[in-house]
Amino acid sequence: MLMTCRNVRQLHDAFVDGELSASLTAEVHAHLLQCPECQHEIEMLRAATDVIAQDHAEPILDSGFASRVIAQMPKPITVIEDAPEEVVEHNRRSRFIRIFAKGAVPAAAAALFLGVLIWPTFEHADTQSRVLGTSVAVDAFGVKSVLSPSLDAVADTKQAATSLNRLLQISVNKAGQQVRDDLAAKAGETRTDDVGLVDVLMQPFNGMIESPDDQAAPGEPEIVRF
Amino acid sequence: MYNKVDGMRIETASEERCPPLRERQLIERARKGCAQSAHALVTSHQDRLHAFIWRMVRHRQEAEEICQEAFLRAFAALDSFDFSYRFSTWLFTIGYRLCLNVLRKKRDVTTDIDFNGVSAADCGHVQENVVETIANSDEARRLKQLIWNSVDQLTNQQRATVLLFYKESLSCQEIGEILEMPAATVKSHLHRARSRLKELLGGHLSEDWSQVNFGEAGSL
To answer: To the nearest whole angstrom, how far is the Cα of B157 from the nearest Cα of chain A?
Structure first.
């Protein structure tokens, strides 16, 4: 099919931009060879766009233009020299130390928290007012810390752990007293030695364990109950 | 600018396009207040931006003022710059908007065009090449003037599209980012600009215009 001038005008942009397929491009070329008018139009526009692209007749700015722009900038500016290698290396090391420190603080707080949990429970009365050896005021809201918030949290946690230990101690003491009374009632004597935690925990099971006096009578089978 | 012998594009120190990584470093340091980095950003973009603005407003003093204002506004908003775009795209967008503001204030664009505003001395070119001598012959100069006159008669959007497409060698997508329109709209403006240029030039160019040696321009 031979291409007409109208076809070429419609395809002109795509042809100039190189967006036509190979076959269509060949057809346009074939038409241009036979149509001086279309060829003239194509060449004229191409020359004009080449001039637009390559003609640099615009005035150029003087060498002080950039300095004038900088001078008018409202934001205060300073001259920052390129950092020498040693400073760059120091900055890298400082950055590493900062990153390490960021991770070390939470780790230290966690270690303190764990230390509080296994802190000795037998404390003098006045250590309630001491946090890590520092005397602090005690009020109705708990231990006050003069140190950082992380230590506040540690102090509160320590207080909570201390309270828990005391509660357990009280429970053990009371239970121990009860066990002593029970044993004394059984044996008909007063037991004065301290009852340990094991005795308290074993109390429910003591009744299940038969004493030599309670052994089954001869002839009766032994019954082990779980 | 173009090499006058083989037509290959070469870049001067001022118009050399900054590599993206280097550009990002300059912008980040300029944000912190580094004058050297800000200065480097200005010098690497000033010539291209000024050429575009001058071709839009065709007035030397106004072009310089607009160019300066574009840089100041760009630096004032540098903290919000999006690194997914090139700095030049952003600069040209600001420059184009400022050009439109100026052009809207003018009633008759043609009467304000400073055709005499550019002399050979202003161009700063050194004529060392025979081809350039021929290119600057009277006939070539006349035809170049005709071509630029035709460009000046395009609409603002068509002119901006033509300048960015041919002088800056930007794609329709990139032009769309600067002119804040879809790429398809850019193509439409480009099509209309070409048709208009053919219409304007067809009535003025003599039959033997193709014999004029523009230098590297005009060759098929």
So the answer is: 16
Q: Are B170 and B96 in contact (CB under 8 A)?
A: no
Whether residue B2 and residue A54 make contact (CB cut-off 8 A), yes or no, is yes
In DSSP notation, B137-174 reads SHHHHHHHHHHHHHHHTS-HHHHHHHIIIIIS---HHH
Q: What is the mean pLDDT of residues B101-126?
A: 55
pLDDT for the residue numbered A177? 75
Q: Name which of B155, B205, B126, B3 is nearest A47 in CA terms.
A: B205
Q: ipTM more than 0.95?
A: no
Give which of A57, A135, A64 is closest to B54, Cα–Cα. Answer: A57
Question: Residue B34: its chain A contacts at CB < 8 A?
Answer: 77-80
Whole-number percent of chain B with pLDDT over 70 = 70
> At a CB cut-off of 8 Å and minimum separation 6, what does A88 contact?
none
What would you report as the CA-atom Rg of chain A, rounded to the nearest whole angstrom? Answer: 48
Q: Is A159 exposed, middle or buried (0-12, 13-18, 19+ CB in 10 A)?
A: middle
Residue B123's pLDDT is: 43
The position carrying tokens 């072009």 is B63
H or E segment and range at residue A138: strand A138-139
Residue A193: the pLDDT is 54
Hey, are the CB atoms on A68 and B210 less than 8 Å from each other? no
Ranked by mean pLDDT, the top range of A193-197, B126-130, B163-167 is B163-167
DSSP lists the bridge partners of residue A135 as: A130
DSSP label of A121: S
Please give the residue of chain A at the shortest CA–CA distance from B210: A44
How confident is the model over B140-150, as a mean pLDDT?
89
